[in-house]
Every structure is written in structure tokens, then in C-alpha cells.
Amino acid sequence: MDFTYSPGEQAMIEEYKRQGKILRQHARYWEEHESEVPPEEFPESADNPTPLLKLAIDKEGDSSGIVMGMMVTIYNSWGDTLSMKMGPGALGNAALAAAGTPEQKERWGNTRLAMSITEPGCGSDSKAVQTTAVLDGDEWVLNGDKIFVTTGVRADGVVVWATIDKSAGRAGIKSFIVMKGTPGFELVRKEKKLGIRADDTAALRFDDCRIPRDHLLGGDETVPKAGSGGFKGVMKTFNMTRPAVGAGGIGKALASHDHVTEQLAEQGFEVDWEKGRQNRSTIEQTMLETEADLEAATLTVYRAAWLSGQKKPNNLEASVAKSKGGEVARTGPQRMIEVLGAVGITHDHLVEKWLRDGRISDIYEGTGQIQRLIIAREIFGYTSAELD
Ligand SMILES: Cc1cc2nc3c(=O)[nH]c(=O)nc-3n(C[C@H](O)[C@H](O)[C@H](O)COP(=O)(O)OP(=O)(O)OC[C@H]3O[C@@H](n4cnc5c(N)ncnc54)[C@H](O)[C@@H]3O)c2cc1C
User: Fold this and answer.
1) Is the domain defined by 235-380 classed in CATH 1.20.140.10?
2) Rounded Cα gap, residues 53 and 85, in angstroms
3) Which one is catalytic: 9, 31, 327, 365?
4) Ligand 1: residue whose CA is nearest its atom 43
5) Which among 87, 125, 292, 309 could bridge 64 via Cys, Cβ 3.0 to 4.6 Å?
6) What span, in angstroms and rounded, lies between the C-alpha atoms of 71 and 66?
7) Which among 119, 124, 145 is the best mutation to test ligand 1's pocket, defined by most ligand atoms within 8 Å of the CB?
8) In this predicted structure, what is the pLDDT of residue 375?
9) CA-CA distance, 72 to 124, in Å (whole number)?
């Protein structure tokens, strides 16, 4: 395992940072106009093609593509939630890739799919899904309310978790693909939030919403016996998305760190690593601790991704990465505000915004507490029934 950046990757990082700085000019507008939806492509995007294309040519083969994907996520979220050009996929596409049949991947692979699990009474405990799907002839009929659906406004469709048999508990939960425009599928509202206000988060309703039978993701209509691992299989989608959410949190914390480093340099202050602990100022100590936390969190993300790329189990590592990324997203900007002082919470700097934007990294895709539960189960060999 070697996560040293190649020259091509370093060039790409610089390009993402350069583009990130352009996007910062739009950041305040879109957070202050939360009811609007930002453009899918910013005017500058034509002059700033996605750096990924460049890297594909420069790549020297010293890290797997999946680790590189995490690096892209860190630097693509280097501060703001806006991207120069919105990507083609969303979270539901990861579920389609993980669980869809070849026909389903072919049919919906080029659409943007959100992922909808959470309900008013179902969050961390994802097996508590109340939305139902009942087979009626050759159609599924969906009923239920969903909340906090990332990209729910802009997506073409959504992967919805619903139960086909409540008495079967988690074994009865299946995923369904429902496209926008299907009668009975309503976009209820766009949520208002503390941070990531430019990112759309929707509430959805399914009211006798009929979809064809073959919209069941993976096509398996059977309810597996309890303990057969069917639900665990569904949860595996998270083993790739959790490190990515950690990476997004790291990006915001890193942006705060880098911004404050620049601010300090402008005042002629540079952190000296060589001074020794007892001779450092509080500012130096704070900067060094933040840098160390960022490095540690980044390595956990790369390790989880690397394992996935090697087709090795990464349940534990994915949760460590999510937990560390979520933590540094909270503590990093917080510490940088302390270094800036009072001005840190004004609109003169974006650090206060990145603090608010980063808070979600420790909530969605499973809160920090839930990640630590998973880590404990993995280390001590407990089932979810034994440690809940
Ligand atoms: C901006 C945003 C975007 C989102 N995007 C999506 C999305 O695209 N799709 C989707 O399906 N969901 C999405 N969510 C929902 C998100 O995944 C949930 O909010 C999250 O899983 C937590 O669920 P909850 O809010 O119901 O909290 P709860 O489960 O009610 O938890 C409340 C608190 O209790 C703690 N807690 C709960 N159980 C335990 C336990 N056993 N041990 C210790 N502590 C515990 C939690 O950590 C948390 O601090 C999004 C949420 C937000 C805010």
C-alpha cells in the first residue's frame, strides 16, 4: 500500500484547488438563496474541464483508481459543496451498480438516481422502514413518506427502500427504482438546513405509486430467512459510500486549514515543526494537531478504498474512515476559527460556512455513533442483535 501522490495526481490536486477557489466566488450566493437550485454547470466550467480527464492521461499507476476516486472527492470538496459541473450520478447510482441486474444497469445507468431510506420514524435504525411495496398483478404499489433525500430535487429518479413483508423485519426490505413523473410520486419540499445549503435535500411522498414489477432492484422477490445475510448484502453499498462521505468531510476541514495557513503566512507567521513541543505557541500546536488529524483521516479513507479495490472485506475500515472523516470535519474548521479569532465567524472568511457544511459528514450515511457501534461489533465479533 503506497498512497504517495504521483506527479500527475499532484497536478490534479492543484487544478482542483484552483477551480475550488473560482467556485468560492459563488458560495455565499447559493447558500443565501437556499430555495433556489444552483446551475448544474457554472459559466466557468467551459474554460475549466474536469481535471479527472487530465489525470487519466497523467496517471502513473501507483495507486488504484478507487483510491484516486477518494482523492478526487477530497479535493473536489475542498471547501465548498458546489462543483463546476454536476456529476452524472448520485447515491442511488452506487446502489444500482452494487445490486442491479445487468438489464437494470443498462436501462438506468445513464440516469441520476438519489437514494431514499430515511423516514420520519426511521434513521439510524434502517430496518425500521415503514414504506410499503405491495405486489398487485404486474405492478408494485408503493406507499410512504421519505425525508432527507440528497439530490432528491435534481435526480431523474430515486432508489427507494420499502418493505414487502413487515413481519419479516429487515429481511422484507427491498429497493425499488421510481422515476420522476410516475403518478403518485410527489416531491414534497426542499429541506432548509444548517449547512450544505447549495446541495439539494428533498422530502418525498409515495401515494399509491404504481411501478412495473421489474423495477425491483436486483429482481429478487423472495424474502430471505432471518440471518441469511440478505440485508447485510444491501448494507454493503455503504462500504464504498462511507469512505467517500469521510473524504468529503476531510475536504472541508483541509480547506479551512489551508486557508488559515495562508492567512497566517500573510501575517509573516509560519508553523515551525522543529521547535519541539515545549517551545511551540498555541497557534502552532493547533495547526500541527489539525494537520496530523487530517493526515490520519485521509489515510483511513485511502485504506478503506484500497481494500475495496482489492476485493477484500472493508466493513470495519469503511466505518473507521467515515468516523474519522466526520470527526475532522467538525474539529478542523472549529479549531481554525479559534486560530482566526473573532473574525473567523464573520462572512469575511468562509471557514464558518465550512464548519456548518462539514457538520453533515458526521450524520448522513450513518452518524459517528453508529460508525463506532459498527467498529465495536467488528472488533469484538458481536452481531447487531448483541450490540445495538
Ligand atoms: C443533509 C442530509 C442529507 C441526507 N441524505 C440522505 C439520503 O440521501 N438518503 C437517506 O436515506 N437519508 C439521508 N439523510 C438521513 C441521514 O442518513 C439520517 O439523518 C441519519 O441516518 C440519522 O438518522 P436520524 O436523523 O433519524 O437520527 P436518529 O437515528 O434518530 O439518531 C438521533 C441520535 O441518536 C444517535 N443514535 C441512534 N441510535 C443509536 C445507537 N444505537 N447508539 C448510539 N447512538 C445512537 C445518533 O447517532 C444521533 O446522534 C440525510 C440527512 C441529512 C441531514
Assistant:
1) yes
2) 13
3) 365
4) 369
5) 309
6) 9
7) 124
8) 97
9) 28
Q: 3-state class of 163 per DSSP?
A: strand
Domain boundaries, the chain: 7-76, 100-226, 235-380
Distance CA 358, CA 325 (A): 10
Residue 353: CB partners within 8 Å, gap ≥ 6?
A: 27, 28, 31, 195
DSSP-assigned states of every residue in 248-307: HHHHHHHHHHHHHHHHHHHTT----GGG-GGG--HHHHHHHHHHHHHHHHHHHHHHHHHH
**Residue 365 annotated as catalytic:** yes
Nearest CA to ligand 1 atom 2: 148
User: Which residue, judged by its Cα, is nearest atom 30 of ligand 1?
Assistant: 123
pLDDT < 70 regions, the chain: 52-64, 226-237
Residue 113, CA distances (Å) to 110, 138, 159, 219, 285 in order:
9, 23, 6, 18, 44
Q: Match domain 100-226 to its CATH number in 1.10.260.40, 3.90.190.10, 3.40.228.10, 2.40.110.10.
A: 2.40.110.10
Give the per-residue pLDDT at 229.
54
Q: What is the pTM of this model?
A: 0.93
